[in-house]
């Protein structure tokens, strides 16, 4: 079959503000196995430009695909863009099959199949094996009901098949790197870069997490083979920056250490960046020198909040003392820390923001990223937030960088004022400026300067966005806006009601 993968242009800050673009790993992960199965596969990455819908349509028709496959890293906020592009494509190619995968459609399959008639099938959960089986079935006109891990329409409406088994051996899946020209992709201020995954999933239970349940259980690649793949990308493709997509790569100290040692043995000059948990950093205090030697330059630590009650509410399983110690240890080993900080909890007041700002200053992270609490329907947190009021009806803005829910005691402008003020104080305090200007390590200096540059663009952009965006004063409840909680389906590959058929009313 002729298979076209499309990475749509995303309107979010992460896609539009930096001049860099990262390869769409999810689509490449699907593409590799499909190439090996003999399909003619091509990728259109519309993030470059960004391409208009008309340009995507024109390039797509030139390839004359049998099937167009969509997926995206932005998930929830990316969905409306995918819907618009898919709709435009089927207008000019009415016989083309539209296949859709990723986190958001895995859970919202009922609504998508109900509202978007042009979608032929949705791949639920991890896609490598399922996409192969689905494309074969579509090619030979076999019954889709026999394919595990998908959702499609039959005579009674949208239905999901039984969950696909998790991929036990991640090394068996090949990334279709040949689908991209590495020279186009960069990160960290113009350095050639890729996104990779050492592991999938996370054993922790934060109740707002939209990723953990998707992968169902934590698995990892062979540490030595993985290190060799990174070294090969460096030697053959000139890749310099490795961005880890892992939710939590450091879960097993033993395995992680094996990876670090294997990469050090490869003797390649790489910059590694990614996210992990503060408690793993503290646990690994005795091997942080290996992190540094392997090339780690920055860890994003999801601190989320410093209020112990809020941490309890979101089941973060962290303590403020550990978070603080992790930042200290990273600095001691010449690794930058970026703290994410979440605002917009229902009962927040000025006093909470002030206390949070003081706490953040005491933590002293190198970089800070503020986010708005954004419930996903498949997480337990959604249930807690189900009766809160939506103020942002545009789903493209459900990207953590727009306030989407009303808070009880503060107007949105006031939350934004605290949001921007906190960022400004953290990034403009003398200590932070000193680190940006005079950081002794040239690599870290570059990283700090690049981030500051991004911050300078993001800061006014977010204020303008706020002024431009249409907001509701007191909109529908979260439950009315998205539908009933779906947390019982959170484990995407052990779903509880696989074969359930839904009627039109329920799907709506
Ligand atoms: C790398 C990354 C980015 C990169 C994107 C690079 C790129 N070109 O893809 C950058 C930094 C640009 C970025 C930006 C944003 N991101 Co981001 N990002 C990630 C991150 C860390 C990894 C994504 C990834 O590669 N995963 C690994 C791949 C293999 O998994 P996957 O994409 O899910 O694909 C698998 C399956 O889903 C499925 N699949 C996926 N697509 C398809 C398609 C088909 C046809 C099939 C069959 C199967 C299939 O098969 C794949 C293999 O099993 C995730 C967090 C995470 N741990 O996943 C956040 C994450 C996806 N990002 C998120 C967000 C919010 C954003 C932004 C909106 C932030 C912002 N406000 O700017 C933007 C959106 C930009 C965009 N283009 O999507 C959220 C999405 C939340 C949600 N559920 O809505 C996440 C989950 C972070 C989080 N913890 O909340 N991001
Ligand atoms: S530690 Fe991170 S990835 Fe793991 S459950 Fe919590 S938020 Fe999700």
From TrEMBL:
<feature type="compositionally biased region" description="Basic and acidic residues">
    <location>
        <begin position="497"/>
        <end position="508"/>
    </location>
</feature>
<dbReference type="GO" id="GO:0043365">
    <property type="term" value="F:[formate-C-acetyltransferase]-activating enzyme activity"/>
</dbReference>
<dbReference type="Pfam" id="PF04055">
    <property type="entry name" value="Radical_SAM"/>
</dbReference>
<dbReference type="Pfam" id="PF02310">
    <property type="entry name" value="B12-binding"/>
</dbReference>
<protein>
    <submittedName>
        <fullName>Mg-protoporphyrin IX monomethyl ester oxidative cyclase 66kD subunit</fullName>
        <ecNumber>1.97.1.4</ecNumber>
    </submittedName>
</protein>
<dbReference type="GO" id="GO:0046872">
    <property type="term" value="F:metal ion binding"/>
</dbReference>
<feature type="region of interest" description="Disordered">
    <location>
        <begin position="485"/>
        <end position="508"/>
    </location>
</feature>
<feature type="domain" description="Radical SAM core">
    <location>
        <begin position="188"/>
        <end position="408"/>
    </location>
</feature>
<dbReference type="GO" id="GO:0031419">
    <property type="term" value="F:cobalamin binding"/>
</dbReference>
<dbReference type="InterPro" id="IPR023404">
    <property type="entry name" value="rSAM_horseshoe"/>
</dbReference>
<dbReference type="InterPro" id="IPR006158">
    <property type="entry name" value="Cobalamin-bd"/>
</dbReference>
<keyword id="KW-0411">Iron-sulfur</keyword>
<feature type="domain" description="B12-binding">
    <location>
        <begin position="9"/>
        <end position="145"/>
    </location>
</feature>
<keyword id="KW-0479">Metal-binding</keyword>
<dbReference type="InterPro" id="IPR006638">
    <property type="entry name" value="Elp3/MiaA/NifB-like_rSAM"/>
</dbReference>
<keyword id="KW-0408">Iron</keyword>
<dbReference type="InterPro" id="IPR051198">
    <property type="entry name" value="BchE-like"/>
</dbReference>
<keyword id="KW-0560">Oxidoreductase</keyword>
<dbReference type="InterPro" id="IPR034466">
    <property type="entry name" value="Methyltransferase_Class_B"/>
</dbReference>
<dbReference type="GO" id="GO:0051539">
    <property type="term" value="F:4 iron, 4 sulfur cluster binding"/>
</dbReference>
<dbReference type="InterPro" id="IPR007197">
    <property type="entry name" value="rSAM"/>
</dbReference>
<dbReference type="InterPro" id="IPR058240">
    <property type="entry name" value="rSAM_sf"/>
</dbReference>
<keyword id="KW-0949">S-adenosyl-L-methionine</keyword>
């Amino acid at each position: 079959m002729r298979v076209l993968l499309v990475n749509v242009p995303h309107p979010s800050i992460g896609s539009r503000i930096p001049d860099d673009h990262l390869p769409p790993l999810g689509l490449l992960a699907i593409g590799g196995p499909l190439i090996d199965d003999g399909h003619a596969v091509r990728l259109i990455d519309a993030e470059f430009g960004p391409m208009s819908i008309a340009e995507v349509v024109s390039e797509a028709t030139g390839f004359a695909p049998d099937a167009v496959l969509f997926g995206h890293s932005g998930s929830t906020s990316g969905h409306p863009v995918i819907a618009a592009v898919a709709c435009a494509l089927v207008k000019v190619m009415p016989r083309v099959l539209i296949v859709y995968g990723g986190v958001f459609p895995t859970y919202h399959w009922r609504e998508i199949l109900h509202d978007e008639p042009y979608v032929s099938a949705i791949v639920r959960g991890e896609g490598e094996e399922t996409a192969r089986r689905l494309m074969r079935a579509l090619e030979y006109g076999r019954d889709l009901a026999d394919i595990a891990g998908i959702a499609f329409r039959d005579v009674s409406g949208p239905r999901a098949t039984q969950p696909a088994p998790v991929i036990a051996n991640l090394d068996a899946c090949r990334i279709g790197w040949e689908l991209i020209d590495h020279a186009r992709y960069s990160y960290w201020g113009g350095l050639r870069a890729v996104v990779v995954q050492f592991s999938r999933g996370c054993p922790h239970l934060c109740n707002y997490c939209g990723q953990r349940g998707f992968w169902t259980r934590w698995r990892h690649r062979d540490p030595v083979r993985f290190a060799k793949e990174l070294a090969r990308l460096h030697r053959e493709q000139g890749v310099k920056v490795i961005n880890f997509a892992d939710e939590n790569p450091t879960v097993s100290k033993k395995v992680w250490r094996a990876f670090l040692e294997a990469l050090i043995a490869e003797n390649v000059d790489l910059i590694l960046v990614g996210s992990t948990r503060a408690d793993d950093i503290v646990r690994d205090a005795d091997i942080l020198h290996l992190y540094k030697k392997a090339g780690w330059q920055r860890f994003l630590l999801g601190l989320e909040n410093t209020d112990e009650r809020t941490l309890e509410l979101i089941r973060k399983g962290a303590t403020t003392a550990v978070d603080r110690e992790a930042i200290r240890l990273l600095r001691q080993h010449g690794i930058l820390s970026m703290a994410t900080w979440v605002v917009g909890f229902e009962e927040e007041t000025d006093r909470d923001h002030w206390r949070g700002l003081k706490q953040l200053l005491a933590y002293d992270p190198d970089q800070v990223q503020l986010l708005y609490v954004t419930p996903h329907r498949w997480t337990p947190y959604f249930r807690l937030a189900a009766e809160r009021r939506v103020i942002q009806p545009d789903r493209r803005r459900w990207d953590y960088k727009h306030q989407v829910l009303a808070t009880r005691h503060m107007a949105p402008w006031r939350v934004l004022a605290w949001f921007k003020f906190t960022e400004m104080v953290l990034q403009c305090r003398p200590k932070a400026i000193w680190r940006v200007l005079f950081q002794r390590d040239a690599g870290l200096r570059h990283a700090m300067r690049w981030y500051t540059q991004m911050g300078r663009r993001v800061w006014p952009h977010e204020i303008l966005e706020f002024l431009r965006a249409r907001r509701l004063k007191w909109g529908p409840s979260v439950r009315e806006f998205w539908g009933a909680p779906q947390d019982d389906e959170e484990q995407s590959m052990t779903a509880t009601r696989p074969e359930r058929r839904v009627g039109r009313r329920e799907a709506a």
